[in-house]
Request: fold
Amino acid sequence: MFVGLKATTPPPKSGAADERPASWSKILAVKHYLKDRDWVMWLDADTIVTNPDIRLESLLPRSSNGPDFVITVDGGGYNAGIWLMRRSEWSMAFLDRWWSMKQYVRVRLLPARAQTESAA
Reply:
């Protein structure tokens, strides 16, 4: 059973995240919340739960020797929008490596007018 299960909002973006698309903030948010939780489940805002009868506990490894990262795979490959991570040294190192992969950051530049309006 999950104790203290609750939906939380991501922590405020750090200055390091500002040059990245918002989707990258999940890495910092999970890392932040793993500090005081055994598991964190990330769900993108567009997640739809189609079977609420499946308990989250059934998705987690029963053994402490099980995986620290549980992610779904579908026709498009790995789904980075829904995953669970256990607090561990491996998990923290994985999140650090993921964050450091700057070659995968695709920054969408807004037209000059939109940039000026968003700054106001």
